[in-house]
## 1
Amino acid sequence: MSQPSTSPPKFTGPAKWFDDRLGLGTLGKKQLRKVFPDHWSFMLGEIALWSFIVILLSGVFLSFWFKPSMAEVEYMGSYAQLRGMHMSEAYASTLELSFDIRGGLLMRQIHHWSALLFIAAMFAHMMRVLFTGAHRKPREINYIIGALLLVLGILEGFAGYSLPDDLLSGTGLRIAEGLIKSIPVLGTYLSFWVFGGEFPGNDFVSRLYIVHVLLVPGLILALIAAHMLLLVYHKHTQYPGPGRTNQNVVGYPLLPVYMAKAGGFFFIVFGVTALMGAMMQINPVWKYGPYNPAEVTAGSQPDWYMGIAEGALRIMPGWETELFGYTLSWNVLIPGVVLPGVLFGAVIMFPFLENWVTGDKRDHHLLERPRNAPTRTAIIVTLMTIYGLLWIGGGNDIIAEQFSLDLNAITIVLRVLVFVGPVIAFIVTKRICLALQRADREKVLHGRETGVIMRLPDGEYIEKHAPLAQGQMWRLTAHERREVLADPATEDVNGVVNPGTRKQRLRARMSRFWFGDDVPKPTRRELEEAHAHADGHGEHGGHEVEGAHGEEPHELEPRH
Amino acid sequence: MTDKHTDGTGGQVEVAGRDSQVGVASAQADPVPDPGLPPHDPRPTDIDEGLEKRAERQVAGMFGLATLLILLSCVAYLFVDIHGTFLNFNASNFAIGTTLGLGLLLIGMAAVQWAKKLMADHEIIEDRHPVASSPEDTATVLSAVKLGAQESGFGRRKMIRNSLFGALGALGLPAVLFLGDLGPLPGNLPSRTIWRRGMRVVNDVTGEPIRPADMSIGQLVNAEPDVLVENEEFDSPGEHNLEGTALLNAKAKAAVILVRMQPRDITAYPTRTNWGIDGILCYSKICTHVGCPISLWEQTTHHLLCPCHQSTFDLANNGEVVFGPAARSLPQLPLALDAEGFIIAMSDFHEPVGPSFWERGGEEDVSP
């Protein structure tokens, strides 16, 4: 310290060479010690990111051997059951990868497992974001990017498992062809353009291949980059807690803690998917045989994320309309084209619809606990219920078989449940949230239940309550106190009522729907009164809240 | 900009202060103030040197074991037989996968353990800055944009601007049109199949033609038109069987099922009374829902179930839909016998097979 010759450290050697050309120092100054808050739920998006990297790595390996061609060849490889059969080069090369290339089967299975994981992690991540209100201003655009990534991931997965040209994937494509054909006016043309003529034709493998390895992954990579840049720019959200405000972010630095944790987590994701690839068989295409448009296997199931489309197709009644000699297939159009569009539209628009109701224009960096936004939480659970019921519909044959149930009965029950279930889910979820709010309020006012029962001299039994630590109390009360928009109706001096515009009234109604049932968190005065009341029992020796007597409530400390 | 700052700062107090009832602000205030970041709790590894050393050994041990396993995976790649089996697993896949997977997992676990046990765990507070630009930046940018518009005359020279928009807009046309050759125009292809009058209905595996006597009551045969299946015994010398894409495309529409029921169980439409032979009827195998080949046959009820979406058709009643998402009956192929007594088609289907499409038309006759 005292030596005068100490000078600030300088870049030397290669570091200097690069800094002279790239200005790395300035970049690193801002980012190397960037703070990320710690919470397990922030890891879900990370799983998605890392599994995508695993998909890229394993996919590059597969592309060295996979031949995206539908040219007919005679299989002469080492899988005896199919030797001598005619099949497309795509299917033959998939068999080669599975049986004759060392590590080929492993990479195929890693690729498939991590694809399933990628989409599942994106779903879970999106649920976390919505449940905690991380989609609010200023993060709406990043939320939309995330939603697009989810859709692209699903498309990418579908394109991928359609490539091997086996019986299962061909069946999936045929269903896709049926969906395209149901589109009014353009359907037949679109189907001919997609498949280069009639189904199956000999173009779709090479076309899907370029979609699968270049077009969609390129978009996904670009959107991931944008997603990350915005994450860095906005800084991460954090859960409320002592010392955590809307103006700061509290956590650990990128260098070294998060580099080690996040970097290490990549290896954990890679390791787990590799172990899955080693020990859990997935998509054994050799068992299905090459695609034959006249065959299908019973109980054929798509990858999990297509289950909802499959379920919607299955439970839709067979409605069709003839209109001036033209055919409108509602039975395919609604579940296959309209429903995904509406669901996705609702998910994309959610932040804006919510914002219109709340009229909230402020930035939000503190997350909300799901219970403190009961209506939002209930809406998300409603959407999840629709998803889950359709998903069950996608497996109605498997369920009927496994549980010896009547297939048609399951279908009919689901037709009703997709409308009734979401309503029940909404009401139940909202009630649970409100009950939890009440419990929180109770805990703040009267402390936590200790389980210690005391009998007073006059025979009354009471349970001893212990006060919360201030940090805990803060955690339970740090959320906003939100107000219902006032009724726009006003009365002027002459008693003439101005009912407000229709839009204002709707908004006030929506606001009441959104916030009206919220249990208000206790105020300072209520807390003081609760403690004063608790002291009343003091005469009997049964302090409900110890330490409340004569002290400022915010200085409450648990006593031992 | 100013409200940006007030908005968040002490957000709770701020919101409470805005409450409608005047004078209750203090009563509405948060019950407790933010106690601030709790003091740092040292971890066991921070205070106990023995534990610290142990954590260090754990981390290094995991990295070391990972190295070993990764090398082992190379050994597995080189020396485990790719066609061998181990506990019903593919031996090579299992050996490479488990060693590599465990190696990767250990690298990850070691890194996380290192971060959690040994790296400094002091929480750091970083201030947030407003996401929106500062007023100075906004002003600078706006004046730059204005200057740019002025200097280019973008706003003033409307003719240039509009013609530019026109040219760029026109580019959209070739971008779409040039994809025109992605596929041919459908024409009436989707409405027709390869079936023609006199074409034999043959077993889809053996290619053998079928006589009514070959089928027992309740039996279902997956069948194809003669030209799609090779059979040396029955193919005429010059017969040209389809191959490759042409074969698959034809099969995708022409696949049929032949069923034999008790003639008294069948209630045929008046126009279809002569479409069967002694209770043998022929239906398209392609589901009218989204085109899966239908294959699950329930003899006793004469129902045919699609394995994809469970549409159920009654084959004794003209292929009408009994349950499920399909809207239309299975198209029926009228049958006859040729001179040698084999089952043949009387014509193509009288309506398009497979899933509905916009131009499929009503029930009019599309046969030649």
## 2
Amino acid sequence: MNSRIFSRLAISAVLVVAGHFVGGCASGAAEESQQVTYTATPEEARRLASTDPVDSGPLQLYMNGLSCPLCATSVDQQIDNLPGTSDVRVDLKSGVVRVWIEGKERPSPKELAEAADRAGVTLVKITR
Amino acid sequence: MHPTTNHRVGPAALAVLLAAFALGASDARAQEAINTESATQPGVGTLYVKPQFRLWRYGVSRDPASPVQGVTRAEPSITLQYGIAKDWSLSLKLPAVVQEQTFPSSRNLAASIGQIEAMFKLRVYRSDTSALDTVRAVVYAGAMLPGGDNTVAPQSVDPFIGASVMLIRGRFGVTQSLRYTVTTGADSWKWIAPGVRSAADALRYDTALMYRVWPGAFTAENSSSAWYASLELNGQYETSGDNEILLAPGVLYEAKRFAAECSVGVPIARRVRDRPATQFQLSIGLRFVF
């Protein structure tokens, strides 16, 4: 009898927490997710599809879906594998990946977006 | 009738055990739950190595045909998961099994390779809704393959299919997974408790809640590691009508190159007649990224 009551309570607790989560009532989660949501203007989206190499120097890559430290490593690896990239730094707080571009062979915005895609995240826009 | 102690440790089992210790132990990432199949994938060309140690304690079967009073089963394993294309990954789980069966007047200890699990996973949906938030869904299929000694592991090829959906929203993550395994062998539980007879198919239904305990918010200083608390409901329904649900709280530490996990599962709902009842389950694992 006790175990039946316990099991019902446990399942109810899990469902309540899940409902709370799905409903977006968790204030901490909502606050954090509302802080940074990147969108691209049509012009930024057009530039992201370019196959021309990016200029040398620092770049900031704005990404959505960077959920955890291991995701950051995955992005780091994919970007770092591209020619002409170095000093890749992933900031989980802002969802921004900073990378230094240098050399004869440099990636295009499209290649950077594809690298992010291979890592399982979405590159939204690129700025200097 | 039962030998007091029967050691069966084949060379293959030793090789797996040594490999497990050499590499550390088993698999996880991205608020990936401990016992629930997640909707995450390694990046293309990325290898995840997941050493894991699992321990089950099964109680006495109600089946009078089974002379077993209790079974303790340990399963060290290594899971290798590799991103073969953008939305595809392949994984291979190589387990060893060490099992002790308790009879009224004796014990039986055996060890061998367990059933090897080979699985393809395909991501069918991904929506990254903010810098941290994402929704992902995968379908997967594979088979449990014959391992080593037939005294502790099935010798049949048991195919399975499944699907998993994961939502990450700020500090919270929830994963729901369903997996159906077709039992092609004559008996799926006799390896654990001789005399217990069930060739039923199995539907696993797992729900996992993850909460990032620390850091509350990632900062420039605190974005290289995170602690998560997890709460899972791990259920298994069998076509014989047996059903069992474990409640498994756990903890996960995730850094940039590895993660460590631990959970303990206890039964909270159970109706079993044709299989031994789980008393508890312990999972300890590591995950490495290469």
